[in-house]
Design goal:
The structure holds 2 protein chains of 2 kinds. By secondary structure, chain A is an alpha+beta fold. Chain A has 4 helices and 10 strands. Chain A has one domain: Translation Initiation Factor IF3, CATH 3.30.110. In chain A, helix 2 packs across helix 3. By secondary structure, chain B is of the alpha/beta class. In chain B, about 40% of the residues lie in helices and about 20% in strands. Chain B has 7 helices and 6 strands; from the N terminus they run αβαββααβαβαβα. Classes of the chains: A alpha+beta, B alpha/beta. At the A-B interface, helix 3, strand 5 and strand 9 of A face helix 4 and helix 5 of B.
Chain lengths: ~130, ~210
């Protein structure tokens, strides 16, 4: 929980949520994306990525999260994304080439964001004020 | 057998002989406590007579990846030789308090947490060096976990084969159908690594899929 000033000048207490566009993320390298996510989450923010991460970026994020975990300070992240979709045309299939279409992803501190329910097209989460 | 058929068959086996890898390296992946090591132990025991590692109800019992080379599985006329890598359970969070809830002292819990984070890094690194994955899911749990989504996404992105073992079908609340409807694009075998239920079907799929 933080005291935050809104753009209308009000001071409010709550959890900051950043919704990051596909365009913003596409300007960043994989490492920059991961740094942006981990720095934000360690500050207690909930991040919603319009397009999510590629599978290899997700794996890298897990790896970097493990490096940064420390007892009593940072227990890791809660990350939820819809399963990615494959765009596979006949020609791509012949050459065993598939284009992965990543989808919306929610990331937050493990001790503040809890998934309630998730399926192919719905993520229901609880954000605590801890 | 006709001449053309014979030539075709010979050409096919020569082609396979040249281009097919003799040994496929297969990783056993999944979230903590899905039964990865129990399954690895069963496979290794059934085909070599040995065991792979210890199992426990405390999460993150396996904190180092273990590789067993040259495990040959024969089923339904198909034969495949695998290097099997049993990996630590993947997770995005490790809280040492969770281990204390299982009766560990704080110091021991913190040490286990540290080892678990290192094990997860190792498991992620192994993903780059595999020819295929057996993804073990606990059939009593919700299949849409981030770990499952990430492992499946990585295999799909690299067009590598993936076989889902819907484990713990010995438990009444298990639902392999829920996993099948979540990930219909991948072959799935309902199995109990603990009591061996349906294990022969898994071997058939392994021989067929990774052979």
């Amino acid at each position: 929980m933080k005291r935050l000033r809104t753009i209308s000048g009000d001071i409010m207490i709550g959890v900051q949520m950043d919704l990051i566009s596909e365009d913003k993320m596409s300007e960043l390298t994989a490492m920059e994306k991961i740094r942006l996510i981990l720095d934000g989450v360690k500050e207690g923010k909930i991040l919603v990525l319009e397009k999510g991460l590629t599978p290899s970026e997700e794996a890298k994020l897990i790896e970097m999260t493990m490096i940064e975990i420390s007892p009593d300070e940072f227990a890791g992240i809660e990350i939820e994304s819809y399963p990615s979709k494959r765009n596979q045309k006949l020609l791509d299939r012949l050459f065993r080439k598939s284009v992965i279409r990543t989808r919306l992803t929610v990331i937050g501190p493990a001790n503040q964001l809890k998934t309630l329910k998730k399926d192919r097209d719905l993520i229901s989460a609880l954000v605590s004020s801890q | 057998m006709g001449l053309i058929k014979k030539v075709k068959k010979n050409f096919s086996s020569v082609w396979k002989g040249i281009f097919k890898k003799k040994v496929a390296r297969i990783g056993i992946y999944g979230p903590p406590n899905a039964g990865k090591t129990t399954l690895a132990n069963r496979i290794i025991r059934d085909w070599t007579g040995d065991a792979m590692g210890a199992v426990s109800e405390v999460p993150h019992e396996t904190r180092r990846a273990r590789r067993r080379e040259g495990v040959t599985i024969e089923s339904n006329g198909s034969k495949v030789t695998l290097d099997i890598v049993d990996t630590p359970g993947l997770a995005t969070k490790i809280d040492f308090h969770e281990f204390m809830a299982h009766g560990m002292e704080e110091e021991e819990a913190k040490r286990r947490a540290k080892e678990a984070t290192e094990g997860i890094i190792e498991a992620v690194k192994w993903l780059e060096d595999l020819d295929g994955v057996i993804l073990v899911m606990d059939a009593t749990e919700d299949p849409f976990t981030q770990v499952n989504v990430t492992v499946i996404g990585n295999m799909e992105a690299r067009s590598l084969p993936l076989l889902i073992a819907a484990n713990k079908i010995d438990l009444p609340e298990s639902s392999p159908a829920r996993i099948r409807s979540a990930f219909p694009q991948h072959p799935l075998v309902p199995v109990s690594a603990l009591d061996g239920q349906n294990i022969d079907t898994l071997y058939e799929e392994i021989a067929d899929h990774f052979g």
